[in-house]
Design brief:
Blueprint: H1 2-9, H2 21-32, E1 52-57, H3 59-63, H4 69-79, E2 81-82, E3 85-86, E4 93-98, E5 101-106, H5 112-125, E6 132-138, E7 141-146
Parallel strand pairs: 1-7
Antiparallel strand pairs: 1-5, 2-3, 4-5, 6-7
């Protein structure tokens, strides 16, 4: 019976039905606060753009002569999609080759998982998927390793 009364009188408190009054007050007080170091009414200033940096280490297959890093780099250049379009790298995504490594640097959101997907696609296209696998070498790096068969 109290809930029915509460439901009928909720319009007086200008709050949605079903939420306790203290939750609504807490939500309002959190909205009103300005971030630390910023006055109320000031807009947030733009900070540095975030960079996504990933690398693929191809040392083992290149040393054995079964893979060419420049061919892999050109494959990535042709296949990476930016804003849903291929061959649209522009200044947002950069590819770089250092000896047996391919470095991908992006100032737009770029997924490490997407880089792994493209690497596996390249291996499959060149019939190397049966011998090589893509393993995370660190937080921002992949490495191509041979399958261990015992």
């Amino acid at each position: 019976h109290l809930y029915w009364l509460y439901k009928r009188l909720s319009f007086l408190f200008n709050m949605p039905v079903g939420l306790p009054r203290r939750r609504v007050l807490l939500a309002r007080s959190l909205k009103a606060k300005a971030p630390k170091g910023q006055k109320k009414g000031q807009k947030k200033s733009k900070s540095k753009q975030k960079l996504w940096k990933f690398s693929v280490n191809c040392t083992h297959p290149v040393d054995d002569g079964i893979m060419d890093v420049s061919h892999f780099e050109s494959f990535l250049h042709d296949k990476i999609k930016v804003d849903g379009k291929v061959l649209n790298l522009g200044t947002s995504v950069e590819l770089e080759r250092l000896k047996n490594k391919v470095l991908v640097t992006s100032n737009k959101a770029f997924s490490k998982r997407y880089l792994k997907y493209l690497t596996k696609k390249y291996l499959k296209k060149n019939n190397l998927r049966d011998w090589l696998r893509v393993v995370a070498d660190g937080k921002e790096a992949y490495e191509l390793r041979y399958f261990q068969i015992n």
